[in-house]
Design brief:
The chain is mainly alpha-helical. It is built from six helices and no strands. The protein is rod-shaped, with a radius of gyration of 30 Å.
């Protein structure tokens, strides 16, 4: 029967294999889109951070040096933070570009798979069936490069937070009252491993 010739086991297997090959780049496209979205969000936060630091720097430049505790150190920290967040923004821009290139190649992979499928059916279409493989590999390499850049940016973000917290502790050590500073070993000696003492609740007596 004609219907049996069209819907044969071999034709069905071919169709399933073709659809499976088409779905694989779609999954990579979805994953890359999520990376682009998260990178764009991080870049927006970094830009906001740069603007906030610029405002703090402008206020500090026109402030009275004698009225601001640790003026020179504060100015140095703000400039250092500006340098770090500027570098972060540039890394994020490169990572986003790499993800967009990967997205482009994954879409091109899906298109080339479709063309290769038609070329297998219609012999008059001159299209090598191995073309989707190198295109997909190039997309994966862009994805890998963008992931390396995001790892660098994450480590730089951690260094930025640590630098700001170190300055905050140093400022607290200088300006905090002695009775408050005595509760924290970090403020007095530069160590973090001692927590403040907790007073006992009423009625909680120990032998």
């Amino acid at each position: 029967m004609a219907t049996g010739d069209v819907v044969s086991v071999s034709n069905l297997n071919t169709i399933i294999e073709f659809l499976t090959a088409m779905v694989t780049p779609a999954l990579l496209i979805s994953a890359t889109g999520s990376l682009v979205l998260s990178t764009s969000t991080r870049l927006g936060r970094v830009v906001d951070r740069v603007r906030a630091l610029e405002e703090r720097l402008s206020v500090l430049i026109y402030a009275d040096k004698n009225a601001v505790p640790m003026y020179e150190k504060r100015l140095e920290v703000i400039v250092d933070l500006l340098d770090k967040v500027t570098s972060r923004s540039r890394i994020l821009q490169k990572a986003m570009g790499a993800f967009y290139y990967g997205l482009m190649f994954f879409i091109l992979t899906s298109v080339s798979i479709a063309v290769a499928g038609f070329a297998g059916v219609y012999a008059w279409i001159p299209f090598p069936r191995w073309i989707p493989i190198p295109i997909g590999v190039v997309g994966i390499m862009f994805l890998f490069y963008g992931s390396i850049l995001m790892l660098r940016e994450t480590r730089m973000a951690t260094a930025t937070v640590n630098a700001e917290m170190d300055f905050t502790w140093e400022l607290a050590r200088r300006v905090a009252p002695k009775e408050v500073a005595s509760k924290y070993k970090k403020i007095e000696t530069g160590e973090y491993n001692t927590k403040p003492e907790i007073s006992e609740a009423p009625g909680d007596e120990r032998a």
